[in-house]
């Protein structure tokens, strides 16, 4: 495929997922970074920035999941997934659920003025970062952007 053929790139069977998926990943990682900075600097405005990034990340998981499921239907005709494709689907759903969980925990924490983020919250957030990173790496391999090593 010619990389400069815009029509072919936009109408490829998996193209929409490949574009949309970067939003929840980037927004979640930005939110995580703001949380760490808020904790380090004891700055409530950074925690607020984290909260709004997490809202946006959670909302953008919805089109990311939908376009991923549509890509599966269009590209594979809904056939049963195996191997890395199934693992990517499972990790993608877990990633989405974890993003929503982290946002919900942040939402609950914001309702209690003066309360700081707990170690448990940061642990959940760090696990979410690891799952999202693994999911994205696997998606890169499946898309052909990253080649598996070994």
Molecular structure report:
By secondary structure, this protein is an all-alpha fold. It is 79% helix and 0% strand. It is built from six helices and no strands. The protein has helices at residues 6-11, 15-20, 22-41, 44-76, 83-110, 119-143. Helix 3 (22-41) packs antiparallel against helix 4, helix 3 (22-41) packs antiparallel against helix 6 (119-143) and helix 4 (44-76) runs antiparallel to helix 5. The two termini are 26 Å apart. The model has no long low-confidence stretch (mean pLDDT 88).
Please work out how many helical segments DSSP would assign. Answer: 6
CA-CA gap between termini: 26 Å
Helical/strand content category = mainly alpha
* Chain-averaged pLDDT: 88
**Fraction in beta strands:** under 5%
Helix content: over 70%
Main pleated-sheet profile: none
Overall form? elongated
**Number of DSSP strand runs:** 0
Secondary-structure element pattern, one letter each: HHHHHH
Low-confidence stretches: none
Radius of gyration: 17 Å
Give a topology summary:
Elements: H1 6-11, H2 15-20, H3 22-41, H4 44-76, H5 83-110, H6 119-143
Helix pairs in contact: 3-4, 3-6, 4-5, 5-6
Short account of what is shown:
By secondary structure, the protein is an all-alpha fold. The chain is built from six helices and no strands.
Primary descriptors:
150 residues, elongated, mainly alpha
């Amino acid at each position: 495929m010619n990389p400069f053929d815009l029509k072919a790139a936009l109408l490829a069977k998996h193209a929409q997922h490949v574009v949309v998926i970067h939003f929840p990943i980037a927004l979640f990682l930005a939110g995580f970074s703001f949380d760490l900075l808020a904790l380090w600097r004891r700055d409530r405005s950074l925690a607020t920035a984290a909260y709004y990034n997490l809202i946006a990340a959670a909302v953008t998981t919805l089109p990311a999941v939908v376009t991923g499921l549509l890509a599966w239907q269009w590209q594979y005709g809904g056939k049963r997934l195996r191997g890395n494709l199934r693992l990517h689907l499972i990790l993608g759903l877990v990633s989405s659920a974890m993003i929503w969980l982290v946002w919900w925990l942040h939402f609950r924490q914001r309702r209690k003025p003066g309360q700081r983020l707990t170690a448990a919250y940061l642990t959940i957030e760090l696990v979410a970062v690891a799952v999202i990173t693994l999911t994205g790496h696997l998606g890169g391999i499946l898309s052909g952007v990253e080649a598996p090593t070994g």
